[in-house]
Amino acid sequence: MTRRTFLALAPLAAAAQDDRQWLEVVLERKDPSRGWRKIEPGLILDSGDLVRFRFRASFPGYAYVVNYGTSGTSTLLFPTARTGRENQVQAGKEYMVPANAETSFRVAGPPGHDIVYWIVSPIPLGEEQARRIVDPQRDFTPPKLVPRCDSAFLRARGECVDSSGGPRSVAEGGPLPPALSNLAPRELTIVQTDTRTRVSARTSHSRPFFYEYRLPHK
């Protein structure tokens, strides 16, 4: 390819990138001897494991992250009272979920898949919608999914990966917590590179990113 051709195509490539918004998410688990370690999405966790997320977005917005556990309980992971309920995020900046470097959340409940719902909106949500998300009720239990060890992803020390775990698009018309039932799913592209996952969609200045992250556990 000549330099002239490359220069002609470069603005087109930049325009294509600008046409998509993305989120990058990494899941970490606390190892008793080695501290926090990045793990693969879909790794089957043990009851009692401590986990947390790191994420960054290509666009500024307002983030809400809620975990719905297999026991029917829900936990707001972002924002938290510790951050003063501040949920505005900046483009390119990395954030911890739960929203403090010293915090994490513990895997618990019957074996299955916890579902962590992520909502990142380029504009503030309506007051009533935001209130319902920030104060989730015990009104939803995720569909029961039995963690299954995929033989193609066996790991050392008996660890294994459930290929149905990790980030997923929210199925249109599927079961949702009442607080989230009026959010419309967008068409997403999900690309995993080792322990890092990028979720992208066509740029919208009004519609929120909305997807789920499944945490399989024993």
Structure characterization notes:
It is a single chain. The termini are far apart. With 218 residues, the chain is mainly beta. The relative contact order is 0.24. It has one domain (19-217). The radius of gyration is 18 Å and the shape is globular. Strand 4 (61-68) and strand 5 (74-78) form a beta hairpin. It is built from two helices and 13 strands. The protein has helices at residues 3-18, 127-134, and strands spanning 20-31, 35-39, 50-57, 61-68, 74-78, 88-89, 95-97, 105-106, 112-121, 166-169, 189-193, 196-202, 209-217. Mean pLDDT is 82; it is low at 1-16.
Provide a compact summary of the structure.
The chain contains 2 helices and 13 strands. With 218 residues, the chain is mainly β.
Please summarize the sheet with the most strands. Answer: 7 strands, antiparallel
Helix content: 10-25%
Give the overall silhouette.
Answer: globular
Alpha-beta classification: mainly beta
What is the number of domains? 1
Q: How many beta-strand runs?
A: 13
Radius of gyration: 18 Å
Helix and strand sequence: HEEEEEEEEEHEEEE
What proportion strand? 35-45%
Mean pLDDT across the residues is: 82
Distance from N terminus to C terminus (CA atoms, Å) equals 53 Å
**SS element count, helices:** 2
Q: Can you tell me the residue ranges where pLDDT is under 50 for at least 5 consecutive residues?
A: 1-16
